[in-house]
TrEMBL record:
Residues 1-20 form the signal peptide. Pfam families: GST_C_3 (PF14497), GST_N_3 (PF13417). This is Glutathione transferase. Belongs to the GST superfamily. Zeta family. The lineage of its organism: Eukaryota, Viridiplantae, Streptophyta, Embryophyta, Tracheophyta. It comes from Selaginella moellendorffii. One of its GO terms (molecular function) is glutathione transferase activity. Coiled coil: none annotated. Residues 85-208 form the GST C-terminal domain.
Amino acid sequence: MRLYTFWGSSCAWRVRLALALKGIPYEYQAVGFANGLLDDEFSKINPLSMVPALETEEDGLLIDSVAIVEYLEEKYPEKPLLPKNLKQRATIRQIVNLIASNIQPLQNGGRVLNMIKEKLGDEETLKWAQHWIVIGFNALEEIVKKTSGKYCFGDTLTLADVFVIPQIGNAERYKVDMTPYPTLRRLKEELHKLEEVRQSVPRLQPDFPTE
């Protein structure tokens, strides 16, 4: 399978991490200006022109990180990232959707922040991103404080971890003070002990700018 991705996309990072944790091989296809496919070429593949997109041999093209990781979980049940218990699955999806629906879209650098920057400038753009991440992290910290063990949900890796790690990366990118979030900071430290997590970080991706 081929993953259309970009080093700076936290949504693509989620899919890279899920693929790594499940041990699924894939081709890395960078999307972006002067990196692999150009944006106008990629729009012919995905009219929304957003990453990630996963091209599969059997099922064609899939877009949207939540849809992709759910597909991977059902298509490749080995090394599961969701438990069998219905209530537990719902709790993990609560974390997933808190990030995917209520935090990341409001601080999306490619579209939302670019428009704010055009209208209000760099300083207000940074404040905007920080504001929405802080609101989301205030809720997220309270949730994982109750659900976490070694990882976000007990001592087993789940989709919650797949979404939390890239969002912490976003928080650091936008200089959010992580002091009020001791559970999230502990989870980041624990998860980064895993080789799959360490190799998934943006600076180690093939299209990360060297200059």
